[in-house]
Design brief:
Number of strands: 5
Order of helices and strands: EHEHEHEHEHHHHH
CATH superfamily of the largest domain: Response regulator
Strand order of the largest sheet: 2-1-3-4-5
Structural class: alpha/beta
Length: 209
C-alpha cells in the first residue's frame, strides 16, 4: 500500500487508537492505526507521507525507541508523542530525538488536531524542499567539469578574474562558462544561483587567500 496518509496512529491501547482515529477522520483526515511500533516499522517501507502519533510508553519498542530508529533511518515524517501524566522527562527526551510535539493525556481534541495540522504543514514543506533540492542537483549534474569549477568559484564569491586565474583561462572564457552555468541552472541572478547551491548542499568552503 503506497497511498498518501495524513496520520499514522501507534498505540497498544485499542480504545485510545479508536478514539484518535475517530477524531481525525471526523476532521476529514486519512488515518492508519498500528497496535505497536513494530507493526508500524513493518509497514514503513510503503509509507510516503503523513505524521506519526505515538504513545511514549508501549511494550516492546517504546515511543522513544521508535524515535531513535526513525532518526537512524533518516525518516523525515514528523512525530507527535503522547505522554501520560508525569511523563514530561520522557517527552523532553522525545523532543531531543526529533519529536515535533508532545501532548499530555488527557489532551483536548482541538489541541491534537492543531498539532497534527501543524505537523502535516511542516511535512509538506519538507517534501517540497526535498523536491526542489533534487531538481537542483539534477541541473548541477548536467554541468561539464569546467562549468562546475566555474560554479564553485562563483558560489565561493570569487570575481571572474580570480576564477580565470585559478583555472588558468581567460576572463572572457569564464564569462562564457558563467553564462552556460546560469542557463543550465535556470538562475536569473547570481544571488539565485547561490541560493540554489545552498539548497542543494553544493557550497564549498572558500580557500584561504
Amino acid at each position: 500500500m503506497t497511498a498518501d496518509t495524513d496520520a499514522h496512529v501507534i498505540d497498544d491501547d485499542a480504545a485510545v487508537r479508536d478514539s484518535i482515529e475517530f477524531l481525525l477522520r471526523s476532521a476529514r483526515l486519512t488515518v492508519r492505526t498500528y497496535d505497536s511500533a513494530a507493526a508500524f516499522l513493518d509497514a514503513l517501507p510503503a509509507i510516503r507521507s503523513g505524521c506519526i502519533i505515538t504513545d511514549v510508553r508501549m511494550p516492546g519498542i517504546s515511543g522513544i525507541d521508535l524515535l531513535r530508529r526513525l532518526k537512524e533511518m533518516r525518516v523525515q515524517l514528523p512525530v507527535i508523542v503522547i505522554t501520560g501524566h508525569g511523563d514530561v522527562p520522557l517527552a523532553v527526551e522525545a523532543m531531543k530525538f526529533g519529536a515535533a510535539d508532545f501532548l499530555e493525556k488527557p489532551f483536548d481534541d482541538e489541541v491534537l488536531l492543531a498539532s497534527v495540522r501543524s505537523a502535516l504543514d511542516r511535512s509538506e514543506a519538507s517534501a517540497a524542499l526535498e523536491t526542489e533540492r533534487a531538481e537542483i542537483r539534477a541541473r548541477i549534474a548536467t554541468l561539464t567539469h569546467r562549468e562546475r569549477e566555474v560554479l564553485d568559484g562563483l558560489i565561493a564569491g570569487h570575481p571572474n578574474k580570480i576564477i580565470a586565474f585559478d583555472l588558468e583561462i581567460s576572463p572572457r572564457t569564464v564569462e562564457i562558462y558563467r553564462a552556460n552555468v546560469m542557463t543550465k541552472m535556470k538562475a536569473g541572478s547570481l544571488s539565485e544561483l547561490v541560493r540554489m547551491a545552498l539548497a542543494a548542499g553544493a557550497m564549498k568552503s572558500a580557500p584561504d587567500r
